[in-house]
Amino acid sequence: MRWLVSTVLLCSVAYGLKDLGAPNWSCDASVMAKSKKVPTSAHSVRFADIKVIGALGDSLTAANGAGAPPGDPLAVILQYRGLAFQIGGDKSLDEHITVANVLRKFNPNLVGASKGIGSENVWEVAHLNMGVPGAESKDIIGQARALVNTMHSHSEINVKEDWKLVNIFIGANDICVYCEDPYFNSTAPHGKTTFENNIIAAVKILHDNLPRTIVSLTGMFNMRMLRKIDKKKYFCEGLHTFECDCESNQKFTDDDIQGVCFGYMDGEKDIQTTGLFDDKDDFTFVVQPFFNGISDPPYASPGVVDMTFFAPDCFHFSAYGHGNIGMHLWNTIVQPVGFKQTSVNLSDPTVGLHCPSTSCPFFPTTKNSKNCAAHFTLSELD
């Protein structure tokens, strides 16, 4: 495995903001290449085989405020989708790290990356970024239907033949209403939480309607860190009173917030480990758990929160924050299931982008992570 650590901080000409790019990043030619023959199994997909990228989520997926000027919290209402860490495509990878920008190094003709500023229902901006500000886990069910319909309505996408990567990141708004809404305190049949069942329902729609699809879920993060960001910052505290009721509810303690987040993380892992979506060969579901063990926000110096990581509301990610998260998400994606990192140092932007393994060049899944050799096709071995 070859690692390149030339990731640098860049000043964005378009937005005048600090950013994080990976200039001249590349990997060994053997892992950058497409399969000799388009694979039929989700466990034999090389990164260059992925032709379509989509996303479901909330305002963090819509990238609210990512390009907002410092000190302008009103600009957080703007959805800078082209900067979104999972699917943004405004800039090149040299300038800004997103999963879509990394994948375009493998396949320059990737379809679905969002561009510019606007809402989820404007194709020219959102493309296949279905994220909606304020969305809770129940809302990604409708987003999944919208994603399926949008893919079917655009001729540049061959739903039956193209390999697709759908990214999901959800849960922050569930926490923000958890302390007040009994719906989120309920446990559904079979011991699953409402949150877990909502994700299952959304992924089931993708499973039933999108062949040749890999679903990558970015694991829930510990919302307890939000209170560490707020500490002695009255401006941030005031904004969060409106943005996240439960974060400002002192009866909902730090331990309460953390406990619910851990429960959500367990639910996400449960979906993967039960193999619920490994019942057919051309579809799979993988959790990227790098947020799980993080309890501190990024720091500029010991004990001093790095506010350049955040939009002016002290919660959403800035362009730099999206680039940083995009880097860690990609590095987790290329790690085998069962060996994925569950904590990263958000304070260190010099980690750099990692490359897929030369010995197992496929998108890591539950099956090829156990026995990669079994998923090399005859054409791969020629």
From TrEMBL:
Kindly give the CDD domains that the UniProt entry links to this protein.
Phospholipase_B_like
Leader sequence range is 1-16
TM segment ranges: none
Q: Which Pfam families match?
A: Lipase_GDSL (PF00657)
Reply yes or no: does the keyword Signal apply: yes
What keywords sit in the KW lines? Signal
Tell me yes or no: is GTP-binding among this UniProt entry's keywords.
Answer: no
One function term, GO molecular function aspect: phospholipase activity
Question: A biological process (GO) annotation for this entry?
Answer: phospholipid metabolic process
Family annotation (Gene3D superfamilies): SGNH hydrolase
InterPro entries in alphabetical order: GDSL, Phospholipase_B, PLB1, SGNH_hydro_sf
- Protein name per UniProt: Lipase_GDSL domain-containing protein
- The organism is Caenorhabditis remanei (Caenorhabditis vulgaris)
